[in-house]
């Protein structure tokens, strides 16, 4: 069993040897010279040996002290190395960062951020779990989660990345063929790609008018990425999270259907297990914020 008083005395002893005097060691340790002398006496009593020979001019190591000092110095060196390792882990992107994110983000914004990040820091190991299953960050050891909507677990810390809404989109080619709707009521005439046979839409015009209705699916797929691929193949209209298709909208690969009518927004958040965020996770969060800011 560790004796904490003895460990403290070993630190003081090593400092005296390294400093050459009790006064210098006291200054280094932030204590009085008498306190240093007391720690040395208690350590010698605990060990049953004399470690230092004292004279009016100087201190010298006894035979026991010469034998004891290297092990004590090695212990303190190991502690310092451990502290330095934690400092690096906290302040630099090293080690492993474990991330969980919605499936749909894996092929868009997340890749746009992570690929250059991994190229810049090749020594960093990234484990990315893309799933629509909400993971337990603390129990499963995740450093970072990307999540939609309000935070449910008060033990976690959330930082807003962007506002996000579900948006009905299609390819220009599909709309050229099917006809571009001008009013919400015309949405029923389009071919819909949904995750269920039908869904309710709640839309608000930029001038304040509201509309609610239901549309039926001609194509049903449970995977949001599958629905997106069908949409990109000009097969119909898909309802997609805006944050996941930002780049597709920017280059007009996909275009909004009824752009003046919008669905309610929800937040997209970076969630961490606590406020003490390692550098590796913080830098990814900052990169994601910068990415989304370009499109706001």
UniProtKB/TrEMBL annotation:
It comes from the Bacteria. SUPFAM superfamilies: Periplasmic binding protein-like II, Winged helix' DNA-binding domain. This is Transcriptional regulator, LysR family. Gene3D superfamilies: 3.40.190.290, Winged helix-like DNA-binding domain superfamily/Winged helix DNA-binding domain. Residues 5-62 form the HTH lysR-type domain. Pfam families: HTH_1 (PF00126), LysR_substrate (PF03466). Belongs to the LysR transcriptional regulatory family. PROSITE patterns: HTH_LYSR (PS50931). One of its GO terms (biological process) is DNA-templated transcription. GO terms for molecular function: DNA-binding transcription factor activity; sequence-specific DNA binding. Keywords: DNA-binding, Transcription, Transcription regulation. CDD domains: PBP2_CrgA_like.
